[in-house]
Design goal:
Layout lengths: L9 E7 L5 H12 L4 E3 L7 E9 L7 H5 L2 E9 L1 E3 L8 E4 L6 H10 L2 E5 L8 E2 L2 E2 H6 L9 E13 L3 E8 L5 H12 L3 E11 L2 E2 L6 H5 L3 H6 L13 E4 L1 H8 L4 E2 L7 E7 L2 E9 L2 E7 L1 H10 L1
Parallel strand pairs: 3-12, 14-16
Antiparallel strand pairs: 1-3, 2-3, 4-11, 4-12, 5-6, 7-10, 8-9, 10-11, 12-13, 15-18, 16-17, 17-18
Length: 304
């Protein structure tokens, strides 16, 4: 049974299909859940598929960790052909004979592991003076882009077949796999472009646990709601701290607490009566509120 648009909190691991932008996917899922507020963490191009976590309600406050998390992709790279966009959407601008073997490919892939410098592609949503770069290229303009440092933690060659290969890449945030594919092609001397991309993991979240649109549509409202992960699922790498009722109220009122708890300085997950209430900043023996659930603040206001 459908419900009226209402507050809904939690995180959905969504398996984004082909030919759907991340924002369109977000809006379709939001309407399906009849959720008041939603946002995605980490854009995927329309030609890319795979894991797209969608945050509902209060969970949007705590999505920074996912945005900054390492990503894992399965990429299909076509050797010997360079395109205007770096992927299969663009026009072929250069063709070259592919005369490399698997040993050469593995040797080149190893050279990209570690910290590397990438120049963001013009066909990207990266903004210049408030406009995405792809809007400039549509008007025939090319903007000079500064290189950025990214880290490739691992590249695995899953398949090599003459002029095509499948690779699994685990990388830091901000890595452009299209650019990586082009750079690999250039290093091999034959050029390359990205033919397909599938995101399989973000941080500790895996595509194995993601749901497709078809699966979600086949569920009842109750089943869909039950498929959401709790708000604090994105914060499991932070230390946990349980507060008593008085401490929770003081935090909700913006006060700092003096504590002797033996935890290192930094962000802390906060709980009251076993329930997640937000995140705090610990410095020395002082705990200050960082981001708290709206319901906690409202509850404290009622008590005043």
């Amino acid at each position: 049974m459908a419900r009226n648009i209402s507050p809904l909190d939690g995180v959905l691991l969504f398996n984004k299909p082909l030919h759907l932008s991340s924002n369109t996917a977000l809006q379709k899922v939001r309407r399906l859940f009849q959720a008041e507020k939603a946002g995605h963490t980490g854009t995927l191009d329309p030609l890319a598929t795979g894991l797209l976590p969608i945050c509902f309600g209060e969970s949007t406050k705590f999505s920074t960790g996912l945005l900054n998390a390492d990503k894992t992709y399965r990429a299909l790279v076509k050797l010997g052909k360079t395109t205007t966009t770096g992927d299969a959407e663009g026009e072929i601008i250069r063709s070259c004979e592919v005369e490399v073997d698997e040993c050469q490919v593995r040797s080149v892939l190893d050279r990209f592991i570690g910290e590397i410098n990438q120049i963001p592609p013009m066909y990207s949503a990266l903004k210049h003076q408030g406009k995405p770069l792809y809007e400039y290229i549509r008007n025939g303009e090319t903007i000079e882009r500064a290189g950025r440092s990214v880290t490739i933690f691992d590249i695995v060659l899953d398949r090599f077949a003459g002029d095509e290969m499948d690779i699994t890449v685990r990388c830091s945030k901000g890595t452009y796999i299209r650019t990586l594919a082009e750079d690999i092609g250039n290093a091999l001397g034959c050029g390359a472009h990205l033919r397909g991309l599938h995101r399989t993991a973000i941080g500790d979240f895996s595509i194995v646990n993601a749901l497709s649109m078809e699966q979600l549509e086949a569920m009842s409202t109750e089943e869909r709601d039950a498929s959401l992960l709790p708000v604090d699922c994105m914060l499991q790498d932070l230390p946990m701290l349980e507060l008593d009722a008085v401490q929770v109220t003081r935090m909700a009122q913006g006060q700092r607490l003096g504590l002797d708890i033996g935890l290192a300085d930094g962000k802390v997950r906060l709980y009251g009566a076993g329930k997640f209430i937000g995140v705090g900043d610990l410095l020395g023996r002082r705990l200050a509120p960082d981001r708290l659930l709206s319901s906690v603040a409202k509850s404290a206001a009622v008590r005043e």
